[in-house]
Amino acid sequence: MSPYRPDRMRFGIFMAPFHRVGENPTLALERDLALIEYLDNLDFDEAWIGEHHSAGWEIIASPEVMIAAASQRTKSIRLGTGVSSLPYHHPFMLADRMLQLDHLTRGRAMLGVGPGALATDAYMMGIDPVTQRPRMDEALGAILALFRGETVTMETEWFTLNEARLQLAPYRRPHMEVAVASTFSPAGPTSAGKHGVGMLSVTAAQPGGMTNAAAGWQIAEEEAAKAGKTIDRDDWRVLISMHLADSREEAVRDIEEGATRFYTEYFGKTIGRPGTFDDWTFAGAVESGGIVVGTPDDAIEAVERIIDITGGFGCLLFQAHEWTTWEKTRHSFELWARHVAPRFQGQIEVIEAARDWSAANRTTIFERAGAATIKAFADAGRELPPEVAERMQRGQN
């Protein structure tokens, strides 16, 4: 069976964000907004913005606030929470805030959900990690019911809803798009399938992540069938890391040091389980396909490989990082937008066909055009200039 290929594949970023400790956080947040604005101008489709409360690197606490700010600077890019950690919020309050964003963004807001990724966040709030995934599923069910306009009465060990209903109707109908984060456990795919919503495979860039992403989608399909729901690969988003330059060697020089520092210091020493990233190497990450590094031609080949591994998806997301300079980061996204994205959005084939048809038929077509030029001079009673006659003669030969 051939992999799924949308008529127009979407591209976007997943902005945790990751900012090196020691830099000005005010300027870092401003760069985040500037990057989203820049991608909007490059016709990228989506930007997902994270929620984290500890560990010093991922410094956005409220994706909703960032979405509101970014929506005022952009025209068409869709803006999602990447992700809202459901056990940290009363579902009624989060649903109400997201519905407000739905209106403020004129339907560009999306809700991405998860159980909460940082153990330090849960620890500081006194949340038992064992409860996080079940609580995410409970809250998601309540939020979707509220989005559908239902009146919800529900009591769990951690929240209560008494005849709760939202006071606004959704701007985007039937309601904003919802997606569940999928990591290495089956909890995310299970919830996505059970509730019939999209999926965000956010660990595809990590070792073994791409194969795990494909397995996760299979779980989601199985759970959807059990629940009598349908899910669509077009609503599946796969996350990778990417950097492009004018040559492969330049691209490697640009990010090798920054990527190595990021994986070994942040994932290895700050939040990762001890020993998890001890054997991580940049070369190994590139070889596994978790990091796409090189030229636009390399990127086109990489996307084809990812489609084959996963079986196809609707949107490819890039992990927003600061592994190189701001200028080189912008150039990388520009190269993707100019040379890679159109190959997967049905834009290049038509243009190439028009060029090829013109080239194949130019002799017969331009022969009559030449005759028209000769007649125009004759009708005007003027002699055909020698240089024009010579050029037309060369064209006939």
Key words describing this protein structure:
TIM Barrel; alpha/beta; 50% helix; eight-stranded parallel β-barrel; 397 residues
Specify the helix fraction band.
40-55%
**Order of strands, widest sheet:** 1-2-3-4-7-8-9-11
By CATH, the topology of the largest domain is TIM Barrel
Please name the fourth-level CATH homologous superfamily of the largest domain.
Luciferase-like domain
Number of domains: 2
**Shape, per Cα inertia axes:** elongated
Q: Which architecture of the largest domain would the CATH scheme give at its second level?
A: Alpha-Beta Barrel
Q: For the report, how would you describe the main beta sheet?
A: 8 strands, parallel, barrel
Low-pLDDT segments = none
Rounded to the nearest angstrom, the radius of gyration is 26 Å
Number of helices: 13
How far apart, in Å, are the first and last alpha carbons?
A: 50 Å
What's the helix-strand series?
EHEHEHEHHEEEHEHEHHEHEHHH
Rounded mean pLDDT is 94
The structural class is alpha/beta
Strand content: 15-25%
> In CATH's first tier, which class of the largest domain applies?
Alpha Beta
Number of strands: 11
